[in-house]
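Subject: sequence -> structure tokens, single chain

Hey, anyone have a minute? Need the predicted structure for the following. Not urgent.
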Amino acid sequence: MNLFQSFLFRLFILLVFTPHLSSGATLNQGFDNQGTKDVPNQARLSEFRAVWIATINNIDWPSNPNLPVEAQKAEFLRLLDTFQKFNLNVVILQVRAASDAFYASKYEPWSHFLTGKQGKAPSPYYDPLAWAIEMCHQRGMELHAWFNPFRVRNLGFYKLDPNSYAAKHPQYVKEFDKKYFLDPGYPEVISHLVKVIAEVATNYDVDAILMDDYFYPYPVYGKKFDDGKSFAKYGHHFYPKRLKEWRRENINHFISSLRDTLVQINPKIKFGISPFGIWRNKSVDPDGSTGLRGMSSYDDLYADVRKWLKNGWIDYVIPQLYWEKGNHFGDFTSLVQWWGENSFGKPLYIGQALYKSTAVKNGWAQPDELTNQINYLRTNQKVRGFAFYSASNIQKLSASQVKALRGNQLNSVAAIDDNRRVPPSTPPSVASPATAPPANAQTEALLRKEFVLSLNFNPISIRPVMTNLPGKIRLVKNADRSRTLSWKTERNLKSERYALVSFKNTGKRKYKQVVEEISGSAEFNMTEQRWKDLKEMDLLLVSRDIVNKSDRFSHFFKLKRRKVKQVENPFKRS
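Reply:
Had a minute. Here:
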């Protein structure tokens, strides 16, 4: 390739294929060939209206690494307040941007973008994901946990935590374009990633697990991703000439394995992908989309999203259609139609480039592009909503853009597309007593498992109304010096399961969870040593009716000697 061809290639990449990490459009020019204006569509009663919150490089939140905790929370709440003004109902929060965590994890270090140092916990301590879930759910919004699976470190240098997976296993890490990635060719890497995501699905009340377009890294002219060793070791039937097929099979295995794991953990958690907007070009595959041949998810990122949809491995898809109508490589309307024809019955939401609405350079030529796109999407029955990239750009919209969106496309509240949660305007209902299911061993095992999976033991994520616990709490000393802690109410249902969670007071109203116990009855048997360990701790009793999916009681108390002393709930909001 000569210098002129190289220049054209680089210009093509910069202008057309802008990946998800860019910075963000406006309102009335129509989409017909004659240039006539569309009449704005009425907002749907049920519609997926999402917004991405990117934490990588502090794009959206928090605004700076090591921002004080209170400032972090204040920034997040301001974003949620803004989302509410636009009647958005889904938050896509990036919780693992670069082999790190915005949550308490056994497997990943705290994020550099959260505390300024990878591996350093927030101080004063809080769990950002658990808190964010609570704040979103209070507003009737879903929270989808967004993972970037293979990236280890993005542009910019910071020291990796010595206990991180990448630091402990440098043989699985590859440098590419001054960035670091885990090599998907190693089975150990796939197993680690499934375990990482399963941890969040198990421990947090997230509504969905979502991955974006980054699998194998975006291609860079003149650079090669060095996975020769893993290919030679694990390529088997693909080696030595079918490298691309092997890479795709690695990602297929990752997606299918993760899907199976999530179903086992909790079938209610949705699993979605937000891929690069072009699956494949029609010039190389009759099943592909029209347009000039360029980069594609299938050929360059080795993500066969169409296969995942066809095989039912994912529950929904948000293709990133960050182009305008008429773009020669990614025409918006043509791609919307293609994805509608290739979503195989799965919910289809369209990713929109909000950042181009506010960009001084490289923005859209038509100031009304964003709202015109929404108008067009609402004419397509296979499209059930949209997602804006990204959050910070909402606050950069012009006054006329805000007026048009809030007064037209987003002028009313809409229930979340699949109605898994009640609309924001409807208060949560109180479940009525139900008949317990037949008491057999299989049912008991299923109830116990569901209770374990459904109850998040992080105290700030427990969302029942704090009430006084009816009945009496008793602590009895048995002949063998063990203790029996029990409480009786007017109606202890057979369909209920109970939890005893203990917290250690670390001073200055800081609490650390140290133990949890689960019981099928309102009674806990403790050894003498366990009682001694617990009597100086704060305890939380939780009762959940599995049949009605409702929390009945949540109450804090302390054990002291042979008596039970009730104390004020330290987590109760004023």
